[in-house]
Amino acid sequence: MNTIWLKIAGVFLVVVIALVVLGRWGGNKSAPAPEQTQAKSEQAQKPKTFYDMADRDKQFNEPPKPVEPPAPQSAPQPEPQPPQPPAQPPGRPSGVVYPSDLKGPTTLYFKPMSEEDDIQAQQLLPYATAGRSIGRLPVMQYGLMMKACEQIEQRWPDSWYAFRAKQMEEEITQYQDRYAMMYKITPQRLDISRFMKPRQGTEPRVVEPTRR
Length: 212
What we know:
Elements: H1 2-30, H2 34-44, H3 50-56, E1 65-66, E2 106-110, H4 115-135, H5 143-155, H6 160-175, H7 178-182, H8 187-190, E3 203-207
Antiparallel strand pairs: 1-3, 2-3
Helix pairs in contact: 4-5, 4-6, 5-6
């Protein structure tokens, strides 16, 4: 008889221990330890790798979106006014507008390219974006990027490719001032004011500010 009661007590004790262990395991799962939370926070703040930056640089290979024509309406609508140049910062030459002055989606005007020129520009632009990523690595320079940007601006100065080149050129001058002197990046070279007004043979496209 005593043996049966001992067996019952033993089973009861095992069940109690199992419940306690499961309760602790469940509590730990729902509430992560402070060390785990801190590790996740540090991981979120970890500097971006070269591959992260290269993936972000793909934005420069993306053509600006064409402006959709307005839906037909019965009453004539006034023509949209071109975007006004931003306020002139002190020390900048008069009338010069930088790509970074665009704070949101903006309509700019570019000349369309022939199929042959467009193919050549598409082949050249990736050299500029790759050179931009390489230049941010330690002890590396932006020579490859600048060479490609210069060719783009000389061959297709009124295209959206030239606008992308100016975006990249301005950005490296924001990293270090010496790059402006090293690569002869003048305010006039960065100027995008020509793209802000419609000109003969141009078409409107919506551009976005550079993603950081």
